[in-house]
């Protein structure tokens, strides 16, 4: 009897997992179609094959490379939002540096979906808040930013397409000099559970 119950629970778990995989695949197909219909991008679908051992939370490896058209600096996103850009490419695989990778060379140009006059750069990642950090937002502009506002990529980036969803504002505070504000924003994509992604490159 106990064995029968355990088998039923195992079967339920497998059915649920397959259902979730089907739902995720459907979302990926729909997002790819949505981007393709805009006619602005070259798109490649890929799967995350592993985390990079020496940088577990900062980099991932994909099952697509030069042979599939992947290039350095291509934007990488899930159906929910941008997760990073291609850092290096081999013939059949590529390495992606995530937007949460906290280093000076990993700066993403952003703006706000409902206020494109406010421009800034992702300058780091706050592990305690689990949020991207955007420094040096003028205090008068910071007053216009609300909790829940969407952050998107801006046209200041020559390699990352503008208008891709990145994060959602969760908090802000004045900097230590009181002259500007720091904005904290939670990534739209779940960076701890990555499977299927889309690589995006502007046409032309």
UniProtKB/TrEMBL annotation:
Residues 1-38 form a coiled coil. It comes from Bacillus cereus HuA3-9. GO terms for biological process: regulation of cell shape. InterPro entries: Cell/Rod_1 (IPR042177), Cell/Rod_MreC_2 (IPR042175), MreC (IPR007221), MreC_beta-barrel_core (IPR055342). NCBIfam families: mreC (TIGR00219). Residues 48-200 form the Rod shape-determining protein MreC beta-barrel core domain. Gene3D superfamilies: Rod shape-determining protein MreC, domain 1, Rod shape-determining protein MreC, domain 2. It holds the Pfam family MreC. Keywords: Cell shape, Coiled coil. This is Cell shape-determining protein MreC. GO terms for cellular component: plasma membrane. Transmembrane segments: none annotated. Belongs to the MreC family.
